[in-house]
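User: My collaborator sent over this chain with a note saying "see what the structure looks like." That's all I know about it. Can you take a look?
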Amino acid sequence: MKNFVLKGNICYSESRESIRLLPNSYLVCENGLCAGAFTELPEKYASLPLTDYGDRIIIPGLVDLHLHAPQFAFRGLGMDMELMEWLNTYTFPEESKYADLEYAERAYSLFARHMHLCATTRAAIFSSLHSPATELLMDKMEESGLVSFVGKVNMDRNSPDYYCEKSASSSLEATERWICNTMDKYKNTRPIITPRFIPTCSDELMRGLRTLVEKYNLPVQSHLSENYNEIALVQELCPDARFYGDAYNRFGLFGGDHPCIMAHCVHTGEEELDLIKKNGVFIAHSPLSNSNIASGVAPISKYLANDIHVGLASDVAGGETENMFYSIASSIRASKLRWRLRDQSVKPLSVDQAFYIATVGGGSFFGKVGSFEPGYEFDALVLDDSGLDHPQELSLRSRLDRCLYLADDRDIKAKYVRGHQLFDRT
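Assistant: Without extra context I'll predict from the sequence alone. Here is the result:
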């Protein structure tokens, strides 16, 4: 692990409501951790190797708190459908292909290459229900240099015959073998328990997954309150549950003593929100997929005001791109439409809030991640905005805002994860 200094225009969240801007300043890495950002380099760091990125912008790496690796192959398709039709038309047929390891090798090599080059430095990823392909995906993610949680999907009911585990017991046996094969295999990649969602998981399977969570001390990821038809199906399947989140909670798969990510939470009521807060559940906000498959818009500024953990997610392939800059811009745009057309008591997201959930908000699931405050893990992107043409002089804040709306992989000139440089194209 190197100790070094980066010089450039440094920007990071100092709170949910404010971005700190340090023009022409210094960012210090010690043993993979941030030692701080300084307008003048302290003498004790003067001997460290320094990379001067000139007028480029340096921001924390972005965190994608929810995406589906096997769906990467069909991103951009079926965007005129709603959730359940989209799953049956595109998702389940594609994910079933990952029983073929040759196909998985081709598909996951492409996925990992894109993840290596994009703005994401941390990710929580769904695989398919196939253990060998999931382990292959974890190999690829480890090679990519990102830090990630990867989950073998569990689903034993209400799924197509060609894409459904035979029984709860067979699902649990395969999952436990996969956990044992992978939990100590990697430096940057860890398993995460992944029931697809309540409609596809029997009570027996959910109880068994809780046992695995406790036995191996693993986090959980799933979906929650995304779509009206989905919510109605959960009510039918789980009549004793007071609300969707309660259906997870009664199996011990809803935060509390183990970290938990629930994607979407578009239609979360007050009782469900109270339980999310009490149990410390992370909401993975997915504005692209929520728009594309007509689920709605989650009231994210309300969640932030209630001190709920919120991170940002691409939700590939419900979201059509892994570009997290696009998710940042889309989260602001969607919140404005919700405010204007549905509920003016919930304010739109500000740029500062959207940047926060894309960095510190989601990064907190991984520990001290997403900031350049001292003690945070050193994940950083170096952005070259010189290709974003403009005739006028712009402040650093204006340049950052334009990057969040306009940047893509081509504008990322260097990428660091845990203090390791993944690439430098300057």
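A starting point for your reply to your collaborator: The chain has a mean pLDDT of 97.
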